[in-house]
Amino acid sequence: MLPNSPTRILIIEDDQDDFLIIQASISDIPDKKFRIDWCYDYTDALQRISRSGYDIYFVDYLLGEKTGLELLHEAKAMGCEEPLILLTGIGNRDVDVQAMTSGAVDFLVKSEINTEKLERCIRYALDRSTYLKALKSNERKFRSMFERSKDSVFLTGEDLVFRDVNSATCELFKYSKEEIMRLSLYNLFARREAAQQLRDKLALAGEVEDLEVELMTRNKERKNCILSISRETYPSGERYIQGIIHDITNLKRIERATFQIEKLRSTATLLRTLAHEVRNPLTNINLSVEQLKPGITDGDATIYLEIIARNCGRIDGLISELLDLSRPAEISLQRSGLQDIVNSTLAAASDRIALKNIRLDLTYPDQPAFVMADRDKLKIALLNILINAVEAVPAQSGVITISIRKEGAHYRMYINDNGTGIPEENLSRIFEPYFTSKTNGFGLGLAATWNILQSHRAGIDVSSQLGEGTSFMLTFEEA
């Protein structure tokens, strides 16, 4: 309603005399402008209400075969936000209560109506309507911000059981809204001790700001997140928790991959430098041995020369091996199905899996997951990961889960096990050549895997928890 414009009033009344009396009383209100219309038909009244052409409605209790209460119900069901005032011929407490519960802002007895009462009633109704519309507008605005946020936004009780979540929360954790509303935030923590730390901090300070946590999705995928929550109080005095979760998994993944690439690049540079510096004197040693051999007839001296030559060969072979690991693998890419490559890899490891009686859980998409791959090389990379998982899990109770999922323009392969896990300090080193925690290992398997996957332009990420297991995530571009 524009300033200084008349207040638009619709009187829904099947008795014209009663309409005229109410109209006259409203018109006598001083210093106010009104445009008053009359409607006596129930259906016509609903149509006018649906068009929102008025600022306030007066509704008679008796409207032919139907009642004003029925009209109130239908008007509210249509989304009417303008104030509705019920009129009746006699005072009746039951009707009064029904009117208020049906959405009426006031209840007037016709025989008691006068200009003063109508002025007060209209003023109160319009003020309340303005307040409620502003409140609903703010609610819609904040609800829109809540729903459209790319971050997870949520409300919980004191126990952190979810009461309301936005769609980003469901998308992040892969639960439906109904499912996640039955969970507590504590249930989503990847580490029990981290959940307990959050509980302690919340009890001590009442809020937590920018806490880096690792959360678990429905698919057992670990997510690196920044969590901020605070304890708030409703006007009623009831306390609740509001919070926001920012997913930094991709950022962390890129950070780790960049660090790994830079580290391996530095290692490759060092290896090439060492190879050059070592091979030069090694070549001189070999040439010297070849020159000495014809002139030495003593048996013991010949043996020593052979030892020198043999170990020079071993050193040269080791240098060649290191240089091969530092160079991109030579591959021949063809359009291949990931399911077939995984099945072929599992067949190669079937004896090891059977000997430990390990349970395999496979989840494939319905359609072939086509990627550009060198089947033989990729099989080697997957076999290295799989063998590590087989060696890590306990016999009889070991479980290895392999799943392939379509995510946007990529396929993601997850290889999870319930093995011993990898210490956090070792996670950043597992792809380094010759780094191993095994007593009989050479530390070349995962280094070769990294090299092969880099040549495929595939991403690899690993997370692990001691005593709970390890998860590898491989990302391939769809072909």
Kindly name the structural category.
alpha/beta
Biggest sheet features: 5 strands, parallel
Distance between the termini: 59 Å
The main sheet orders its strands as 2-1-3-6-7
Q: What is the overall shape?
A: rod-shaped
Global Rg: 38 Å
Oligomer: single chain
**Low-pLDDT segments, ≥5 res:** none
For the record, the CATH architecture of the largest domain stands as 2-Layer Sandwich
Q: According to CATH, what is the class of the largest domain?
A: Alpha Beta
Question: What number is the mean pLDDT?
Answer: 85
* Helical segment count: 15
CATH superfamily annotation of the largest domain: Histidine kinase-like ATPase, C-terminal domain
Strand residues, percent: 15-25%
How many domains? 4
Helix content: 40-55%
CATH fold assignment of the largest domain:
Heat Shock Protein 90
- Say how many strands there are: 19
Features:
479 residues; alpha/beta; Rossmann fold; Beta-Lactamase; Helix Hairpins; 4 domains; 5-stranded parallel sheet; 46% helix
Descriptive report:
The chain is α/β, with parallel strands linked by helices and about 475 residues long. The protein has four domains: about 5-145, Rossmann fold (3-Layer(aba) Sandwich); about 150-245, 2-Layer Sandwich (Beta-Lactamase), CATH 3.30.450.20; about 250-325, Helix Hairpins; about 335-475, Heat Shock Protein 90, CATH 3.30.565. Helix content is about 45%, strand content about 25%. It has 15 helices and 19 strands. It has helices spanning about 15-25, 40-50, 70-75, 95-100, 115-150, 165-175, 175-180, 190-205, 250-290, 300-325, 340-350, 350-355, 375-390, 425, 445-455; strands spanning about 5-10, 35-40, 55-60, 60-65, 65, 85-90, 105-110, 150-155, 160-165, 205-215, 220-235, 240-245, 335, 360-365, 370-375, 400-405, 410-415, 460-465, 470-475. It has a five-stranded parallel sheet, sandwiched between helices. Helix 4 (about 95-100) links the parallel strand 6 and strand 7. It starts with 6 loop residues before the first strand and ends with a strand.
